[in-house]
Amino acid sequence: SIEQPKLIATAGELLIELVQRMQQNGTDRSPVIDNEESRRVIGFISPSDILRVRLRRTTGDDESPFELFE
Question: Are the C-beta atoms of residues 45 and 20 closer than 8 Å to each other?
Fold first, then answer.
């Protein structure tokens, strides 16, 4: 049997919201789907991905939201 992930992220989800959900679910990584309708897996987010987005934000445009896939 295939184990289901504790959490699934969507491509348009804000990173800060995903990090909060990860904390609530006790996980630090997640598959990413394109949208709730198709549920097609388009990637996987890990702690290093979160850090990379955060570092890019501190040196870039502070007005843009944290988006998983820009």
Answer: no
Helices within 1-70 (DSSP H only): 15-25, 47-59
Q: How far apart are CA 18 and CA 35, in angstroms?
A: 14
Specify the DSSP class assigned to residue 64.
S
In the beta sheet, which residues pair with residue 32? 9, 43
CB 68 within 8 A of CB 42: no
CA distance linking residue 33 with residue 39, whole number of Å: 5
Q: How far apart are CA 27 and CA 4, in angstroms?
A: 13
pTM to 2 decimal places: 0.72
- Token digits of residue 19: 């990090």
Contact 70, 49 (CB under 8 A): no
pLDDT digits 0-9 by tens, 8-37: 999 999 988 999 999 999 999 999 999 999
